[in-house]
Amino acid sequence: MKLQLGTIQTLKVARKIDTGYVLSNGEKEVLLHISEAKEELEAEQEVEVFLYQDKKGQIVATMTIPTVRFDAFDWAEVVEVVSGLGVFVDIGIKKEILVSSDDLPLLSSVWPEVGDELYVALDKDKGDRLIAKPVKEGDFGDDWDQAPKTLLNAPISGRVFRTSKEGAVIITEEGYRGFIHHTERKRDLRLGEWVKGRVIEVKEDGTLNVSLRPLKQVGMIDDAQMIIDYLEAKDGVMAFTDKSDPEAIKKEFHISKAAFKRALGKLMKENKIEQKDGKTYQKK
Q1: How far is Cα 22 from Cα 60, in angstroms, rounded to an integer?
Q2: 76, 120, 131, 132: most buried by Cβ count inside 10 Å?
Q3: Per-residue pLDDT reduced to its tens digit, 223-256
């Protein structure tokens, strides 16, 4: 009977050797290295183990049972990013598992970074090696926890598990689905990134619309300071005013024209800037 890679098996200790224990299912044998055993084992003792490939490609056993399996999703931390290949994640065993670039966004700028976490399950590649695959929304179906209406305007945190030009989908700490429209963020979000925002809508199906932008009055202060910093870096003058093209403003400052105008208005009221000849000048 074949020992299946990536499965949990109950095997018997056939014998102890210098490097660990040889386990058997009656037909096949596999090594449980001494560092992978959680206790001293005796001959003929039954032990539950997880089977994976070591760096030499050999199937080995560990008594550490990962929560990420073929039939079970869980979060796994990104421990290495390899351009063109993918990212490696820690599922709790000694070997890090590859998430292929084929299963990551086309734009590497929104790939996860070290420390981000991906919601993954195990799979096998064409070479029969263990890999991890990120969860897709279709894997959830409609099986989301329903958020209460009382969450409206409340702060919310979660991790990005889908990102696109249109927006990003997060799984919140509480297990709710949250959608962040591209207009409700200042930059594209990485897959696996942890974000903090606020609930701007609780939909009838119990999912959330979330904004990463501060409330207008708070955002205006932040945007005004950003404009001052920008002016100081440009020797007190910039070729942007409240009449500038919205797309040019968005590209340069990553905020909407409306937010830009609010911030300019605040600074003009405070007598910190003036506009003339199609430019904005910082007052000293």
Answers
A1: 10
A2: 76
A3: 888 888 889 888 999 999 988 998 888 888 877 8
User: Would you state the structure tokens that stand for residue 5, as one six-digit string?
Assistant: 């890679």
Nearest residue to 211 (alpha-carbon basis) of 190, 186, 191 = 186
240's tokens: 């942007």
Residue ranges of E strands in 34-189: 46-53, 59-62, 74-82, 86-90, 97-100, 117-124, 130-134, 155-163, 167-172, 177-181
Q: How many CB atoms lie within 10 A of CB 161?
A: 24
Instruction: Decide: 76 and 90 in contact? Cβ < 8 Å.
Output: yes
> How far is residue 247's CA from residue 116's CA, in Å, rounded to a whole number?
31
52 within 8 A of 60, measured Cβ to Cβ = yes
- pLDDT tens-digit series, residues 147-204: 999 988 889 999 999 998 889 999 999 999 999 998 888 889 999 999 999 998 999 9
Q: Which domains does the chain have, with CATH numbers?
A: 8-62 (2.40.50.140), 74-135 (2.40.50.140), 144-211 (2.40.50.140), 216-282 (1.10.10.10)
- pTM strictly above 0.85: no
CA distance 177 to 263: 32
Those residues whose C-beta lies under 8 Å from the C-beta of residue 84, and which sit 6 or more positions away, are 101
Residue 9: strand, helix, or coil: strand
CA distances from 106 to 25, 103, 109, 140, 159 (A): 43, 9, 9, 23, 19
Mapped onto helix, strand or coil, the DSSP state of residue 217 is helix
Q: Which of 157, 254, 148 is nearest to 197 (CA)?
A: 157
Nearest to 234 by CA among 265, 273, 267: 273
Question: Residue 195 is encoded by which pair of tokens?
Answer: 């974000």
Tell me phi and psi for residue 86, to 5 degrees: 145, -155
